[in-house]
């Protein structure tokens, strides 16, 4: 499939990409190349091929899902400009 300059202009407009008029022929060529590659991919026989998440058949490492308090209250509060009684202190915004 071949993309003409008018179609390339319309694609650039829809994608909200500013393309100079001089660059439209190159954009049309590039888009035509992408569509040609996609047509080649459509010719591949994938019957009987199961979908994969990865090219290597390995499971992701998982940690046990345990709820904790983080155990870092002192480290976290050390970054605060003002902390009182184990909490962030912020200015009063409602009177």
UniProtKB/TrEMBL annotation:
Allows the formation of correctly charged Asn-tRNA(Asn) or Gln-tRNA(Gln) through the transamidation of misacylated Asp-tRNA(Asn) or Glu-tRNA(Gln) in organisms which lack either or both of asparaginyl-tRNA or glutaminyl-tRNA synthetases. The reaction takes place in the presence of glutamine and ATP through an activated phospho-Asp-tRNA(Asn) or phospho-Glu-tRNA(Gln). InterPro entries: Asp/Glu-ADT_sf_sub_c (IPR036113), GatC (IPR003837). This is Aspartyl/glutamyl-tRNA(Asn/Gln) amidotransferase subunit C. Belongs to the GatC family. The keyword Lipoprotein does not apply. Its EC number is 6.3.5.-. PANTHER family: GLUTAMYL-TRNA(GLN) AMIDOTRANSFERASE SUBUNIT C, MITOCHONDRIAL (PTHR15004:SF0). The gene is gatC. Heterotrimer of A, B and C subunits. It is an enzyme of class 6 (ligase). It catalyses: L-glutamyl-tRNA(Gln) + L-glutamine + ATP + H2O = L-glutaminyl-tRNA(Gln) + L-glutamate + ADP + phosphate + H(+); L-aspartyl-tRNA(Asn) + L-glutamine + ATP + H2O = L-asparaginyl-tRNA(Asn) + L-glutamate + ADP + phosphate + 2 H(+). Keywords: ATP-binding, Ligase, Nucleotide-binding, Protein biosynthesis, Transferase. GO terms for molecular function: asparaginyl-tRNA synthase (glutamine-hydrolyzing) activity; ATP binding; glutaminyl-tRNA synthase (glutamine-hydrolyzing) activity; transferase activity. Gene3D superfamilies: Glu-tRNAGln amidotransferase C subunit, N-terminal domain (1.10.20.60). One of its GO terms (biological process) is regulation of translational fidelity.
């Amino acid at each position: 499939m071949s993309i003409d300059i008018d179609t390339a202009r319309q694609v650039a407009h829809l994608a909200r990409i500013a393309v100079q008029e001089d660059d439209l022929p190159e954009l049309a060529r590039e888009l035509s190349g992408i569509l040609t590659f996609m047509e080649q991919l459509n010719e591949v026989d994938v019957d009987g091929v199961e979908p994969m998440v990865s090219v290597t058949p390995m499971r992701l490492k998982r940690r046990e899902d345990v709820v904790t308090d983080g155990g870092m209250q002192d480290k976290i509060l050390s970054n605060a400009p003002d902390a009182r009684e184990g909490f962030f202190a912020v200015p009063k915004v409602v009177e």
